[in-house]
Amino acid sequence: MVYFIGAGPGDPELITVKGKRRIEEADIIIYAGSLVNPQVFAGARPEARIYNSASMTLSQVVSIMEQGEKEGKSTARIHTGDPSLYGAVREQMAELERLGIGYEVIPGVSSFLAAAASMKREYTLPGVSQTVILTRMEGRTPVPEKERIEKLAGHGASMVIFLSVGRIEELCTRLQKGGYRPDTPAAVVYKASWTEEKIVRGTLADVAEKVIKAGIEKTALVAVGEFLGDSFELSRLYDEGFSHGYRQAMPDGGAELI
Ligand code: SAH
To answer: The pTM is what?
Structure first.
């Protein structure tokens, strides 16, 4: 059996209870070396075989899993954040299906969620944006034409851009071309939840310069949108005059609430 496990964004306490347990039980551990904090497998069995996938190809990773399966062993395949985002996990699943090897996916805390927590912000603010766009700029790997940064920027939604901080100037220019005003708040979160975490705050007009000055070139997210600002409406969910399935409206404004 193979378990694809989201290791979380870096802080070793930000892994699920289930993911941690599967790692502790595993005979074989394969982790994405560039971003997974090795502390997440500190509790591995002493006899567990541990591989860093950073220098491996897909077929090498799959052959370790296949060998493990033949020996009746369990494999924990550890991905950073959540495997469903830029995890190159689907191609591994396809191979396992072809080989008839069973697998399960255990989700993790994605870095974009850790970034919101570190910034103390909510992506979906009433009256501001109810949509989060997760994307990346094309680089050595392409992005479909219909998802060009300029096109996505046209929505003015909350946006989180992965894998693109190395070209922050170009990114900020293109976001503005797409429709965000130059004074739109923007922030870069480097290594969210790690001890070396850094947050750089600014606007689309000045955040690039600040990020370059801070020397941030990778392992960072770029967040853009008015959700980073301070104006928003109060939610209906906790509005005294608004009923929903779990609570009746309080005509007196809730003053009599015991
Ligand atoms: N599956 C991962 C993303 C993998 S792609 C997830 O769910 O988070 C790798 C990119 O994710 C990095 O280039 C960076 O843009 C972002 N990233 C991963 N961990 C991060 C962290 N702790 N802080 C900020 N960005 C991070």
So the answer is: 0.94
